[in-house]
TrEMBL record:
<dbReference type="InterPro" id="IPR005180">
    <property type="entry name" value="DUF302"/>
</dbReference>
<dbReference type="InterPro" id="IPR016796">
    <property type="entry name" value="UCP021774"/>
</dbReference>
<dbReference type="InterPro" id="IPR035923">
    <property type="entry name" value="TT1751-like_sf"/>
</dbReference>
<dbReference type="Pfam" id="PF03625">
    <property type="entry name" value="DUF302"/>
</dbReference>
<feature type="domain" description="DUF302">
    <location>
        <begin position="35"/>
        <end position="100"/>
    </location>
</feature>
<protein>
    <submittedName>
        <fullName>ABC transporter</fullName>
    </submittedName>
</protein>
Length: 134
């Protein structure tokens, strides 16, 4: 199983972030949290790294269904989506969304499978929309 659903974009970092937010919104996900890893590591450890933004995306109906199955599932929510500069290829940005099937694999709870399938379809559609807009 792949850890992430991902794509590579030939665009600016700012454009990739804006397009990712819009694509997530089209699929019913809101961004609840945002972690700027580059700024955080610079401030806390005085370490430099490429631009790396973690978006905590949540689809409330899917989250509600998952919590109804397993109250501890909140430990694995929201679905993280990473937008990061690709250090291997200048001028490209990687967008990676957590594969929701990990929720099923980590918990061993088969009742989460349909929810993970729905979330996976929506996240993959968001990822696909990014390349369709290119």
């Amino acid at each position: 199983m792949n850890l992430a659903l991902s794509t590579t974009l030939e665009t600016s970092f700012e454009d990739a972030v804006a397009r990712t937010r819009a694509a997530l919104q089209e699929q019913g996900f809101g961004v609840l949290t945002e972690i700027d890893m580059q700024a955080t590591l610079k401030a806390k450890l005085d370490t430099d790294m490429e631009r790396y933004l973690i978006l905590g995306a949540c689809n409330p109906p899917l989250a509600h269904r998952a919590v109804q199955v397993d109250r501890q599932i909140g430990l694995l929510l929201p679905c993280n989506v990473v937008v990061r500069d690709n250090p291997a290829e200048e001028g490209t940005v990687l967008v990676e969304a957590m594969n929701p099937q990990l929720l099923v694999q980590v918990t061993g709870e088969p009742a989460l499978a349909a929810i993970a399938d729905d979330a996976g379809r929506r996240l993959q559609a968001a990822i696909d929309a990014l390349t369709a807009d290119a």
